[in-house]
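Troubleshooting log. The previous run stalled partway through. Resubmitting the same two chains, unchanged.
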Amino acid sequence: MPDLLSLFLAKYNYWVVIFLMMIGLYAMMAKNNLVKKIIGMNIFQTAVILFYVSIATKHDASIPIIGHGHNGHHAIHAADYMNPLPHVLMLTAIVVSVATLGVALALAVKAYQQHDTLEEDEIIEQLKTDYLSQQ
Amino acid sequence: MSAQFPALIIIVPLLAALFVNIAGWIRRSLCFPTALAALVVSFLSAVGLMGRVMADGDVIYRMAGWDPPWGIALHIDHLNGIILILISLVAILNLIAHRTSAASQFTNRLGAFYALYLLFVTGLMGIVITGDTFNLYVLLEISSLSGYALLGMGGGRATLSSLHYLFLGTIGASFYLLGIGYLYIVTGSLNMVDIAGILPALENVAPVKVSFILCLVGLFIKMALFPLHTWLPNAYSHAPNPAASLIAPLTTKVMIYIMIRLILTVYQPDFAFIQMEIAEFIQWLAVIAIIAGSILAYKQNRLKRMLSYIIVVEVGYMVGGFWLGNAAGMTGAVLHVLNDAMMTLCVFLAAGAVMSRVQFDEFKHLQGLFGKMPYTMIAFVVGALSIIGVPPTCGFFSKWYLISGGINAGHYAFVAALIISSLVNVLLFFRVIEISYFEPFANHHHSHNHHAESLFQEASLDMLVPLLVTAGLLIAMGIYAHILVTQFIEPAVLPSLMGSL
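Second attempt completed without errors. Output:
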C-alpha cells in the first residue's frame, strides 16, 4: 500500500491529467446538452496541455531566462533551467483548442437556430420526424 | 525558384485562402479563378518536386533557414512526393467539377466556402510534406477544422453530424498529441528523422510503446477504422456535395499516410511489427472492419450513404494490408491509397452529378438514369468496376498486391475478407446499375407529354469533364500500375523494410 501511495505521489501530474481527461470524456459521452459536451471537449484538450506543461519542469530549476546574459561569460547549465519548448508548443496548442472551441460553438449556434434547442435527444427527435414526413 | 517548391506548395494556397475570402466580399466571380490558380501552382510545384526527388533523392527544405532538429524541416521523398501530387490533383478536379453547384448552393457564402476549401487542402499538403511531428499535429487540426466547417455548411442534418465528427476528431487529435508528448519525454526531439536516430539507443522502451499506442488510437479514430467509424457515414452523407467529394477521398487516405509515415520513418517497421506484438491484433481488426463495413454498406438505401460505408471497408483494406508487414502488403496499401482516392472521387463526383439533376440519392429515384445521363453513368460504372477490382481499372492491381501480401504472410482470413468484400461490392454496385439501367425513368413530376424532354438531361459540362477525366485516370492508373509501383512506391517502401527486417 505505501508503494502504491508513493507511486501516486511521485507521478501525481500523470494522475491529474488522466483524471481531467476522464472528466472530459465522460462529459462528451454522457451529457445530453451540446454546450456541456463542448465544455467536456475543452477539458479534455486542457488535460493534454497541462501534461505538456508538467513535463517541462525539473528539480531545482528556475524559469528559462538567463540573467546578466549580456556579456556572455556565464556558463549555462541546461539543468538549472526549465525546458521552455513544451510551453512554446502549448501556446500553439492553446490556439488550436480555441479555434476548435470556436468552430464547435458556431455549429452549436447553428443547431440552436435550426431546432430551437440544445438538447441532443430533442434535436434527434426533430430530425427523425422531419425525415419521416419527407418519405 | 525550384528550390522553393516545398514552401510554395503550402504557402500559395494558404495566402490564396485569405485573398479568396476578401474576394468573396468584393467580387464573387473572382473566387473560383483565384482558388484554381493557387491549386494549380501547388500541383505544378508538387510535380516539379517529384521530379527533383526522382533525380537527386530526398529533398530536405529548411523552413526559414533553421537546421533540423531545431527548426521545422520539410522532408520530401518518393512516398509523400506522389501523395502531394494526388492531393492537389483531386482538389483541382473537384474544384472544377463543383464550380456551378457551389455557386448556386453557397450564394453569399461563396468566399467562405473557397477559403475553407483552400485551407483544408493546405492542411493536408502540410501534413504530408512536413518532417516534424508537432507541426503535423497543427496542420492536422487546420485541415480538420476547415473540414468540420465545410461539412457543416449544408444545414439540416449536416450540423449535428459535423458536430459529432468534431467531438470524435478532437479526441483523436488529442490522443495523437499525447503520444507525441510521450515521445518527446524520452527523446527530447520533435523532428521525425532525429527521433528515429535516437529511439534505437533507448533502454527503456515502455514510454515509446505508450506513445505508439496513443498515436495509433488517435489516428484510427481520425481514419475511421471500423469500431471507431461512427462519425464518418453521417458526416459524409449529409454534407453538401462540393465538400463531401473533396473530403471523402482525401481525409481517410491522408490519415493512413500519417500511420505509414510514423511506422516507416519514426518508429521503424521492426519496432512496430515485431517488438510491439500488436500486428496480429490489428490485422484481425482490419478483417472485422472489412466484413462489418460490407454488411453495413449493403443495408443502405441511399447512394452517398452506401459510398460512405464503402470508405470504411477500404480503410480496412489499407490498414490490414500495411500491417501484414511484408513488401507486397505494404506496396499494395500505398498503391491503394492512390487508387482509392481517385475511385472515391470518381463515384462521389458521379453521385454529385446525379444529384444535380435528380435532387435525391435514394435508390428508388435512380431509375432510368442510363438513358437520362449516359456519360455520368459510364464514369460511375468505371469507378464501380475499380472499387470491385475488375482488371483494366486500377482497383484490381492494388487488390492483387494486397491479396498476394496476405498469402505471403499466411493470413488467409484477410485474403478471404478481401474476396468476400469484393463480391459484396459486386452486389452493391450492380444493384444500383440494375435500377438505373433496366428500370425506366419514373416521371413523378411531369405529365407524359414532357417525357421526351426529360429523357436526355446530362449534367453540366464543367461537371462532366472532370468526372470523365477521373474515370480515364482510373483506367490509366491501372494500365500503368507497374510504373507507379516500380518508380514511386517500391523506392519508398522497400529501403526501410530492408534495413530492419
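Takeaways: The longest strand of chain B covers residues 59-62. The interface with chain A takes residues 134, 137-138, 141, 145, 148-149, 152, 155-157, 159-160, 162-163, 166-167, 170-171, 174, 177-178, 181, 184-185, 190 of chain B (CB under 8 Å).
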